[in-house]
Amino acid sequence: xxxxxxxxxxxxxxxxxxxxxxxxxxxxxxxxxxxxxxxxxxxxxxxxxxxxxxxxxxxxxxxxxxxxxxxxxxxx
Length: 76
Ligand SMILES: [Zn+2]
Description:
Layout: E1 28-31, E2 49-52, E3 57-60, E4 66-69
The protein binds zinc ion (ZN).
Residues 17, 19, 21, 52, 54-55, 57 line the site of zinc ion.
């Protein structure tokens, strides 16, 4: 079964992960397909994924679907 994070319809800046983390709490950061933090640059192969900094779930920013989980992400 697919999991999705919650985004209020009236505030696209605000995300709430399934674990309860929000943009205003631990927050989220851009990550690669393995769930490790990365800086998205023009020539990077960033797949528009974000990492929940509380639980390590990785999220597709376009669909808000949880696409993976890395419990021990490497942060920059
Ligand atoms: Zn989370």
